Amino acid sequence: LLAPTEMSSPSLKTGAYILIGVGALTMLMGFLGCLGAVNEIRCLLGLYFTCLMIILLAQVAAALVIYFQKETLKDELSNVVEDLIKNYDPLNENERRNIQDAWDYVQTQIACCGWTGADDWENNEILKNKSNTEYPCSCSNRSKDLVEGRGFCSLDEPVNGTATYVDWPVHEQGCMDGVEEWLKDNLGVILGVCTGVAVIELLGMILSISLCKNIHSEDYTKVPKS
Which membrane topology term applies here (predicted)? Predict the structure, then answer.
């Protein structure tokens, strides 16, 4: 899903472009590796090895950037989410619809509301015009609201004057804390997957070198002796 320009940040856009580039390079690398192995072409195997090494180094560099720039990335992500919440409109059918649906999915799955808390939704233009007597359905802690999964739900009991997020039947935890908690709970799985991918890439590099050496040895034995 691609966010519109006004919801993007330099770091997030750069990260998206890097992922696209790595995906394209991976497809090209796989094709060249298969072609080189089947036809025993040393230059293609060498190119396959080089591509694998570049991808592995890029992954290490990305991990270091995320680790050392995590506070900057968190601030930029906060700005993106806050802008999304402020301008959230369930009747919007343009390119923002996909982003809004993705955010509804996050709030539903993590059981959270807003970025730092439910009070973030008080800045939404539509809810302010309705005196906060409605609330985001994806934030709700009631199963009947989650059936809708998106848009706004109305309070069952009318509130005299302007309601606040305290009157909403929603989750208290903000999604920022929910995401951090999810990452901590699944850190072992994430590290395991990353390690497995790195090991597979290293094995591919070793295999390509071995095939190159075998091809070189076969070519040497085929050379007629004078």
Answer: Multi-pass membrane protein
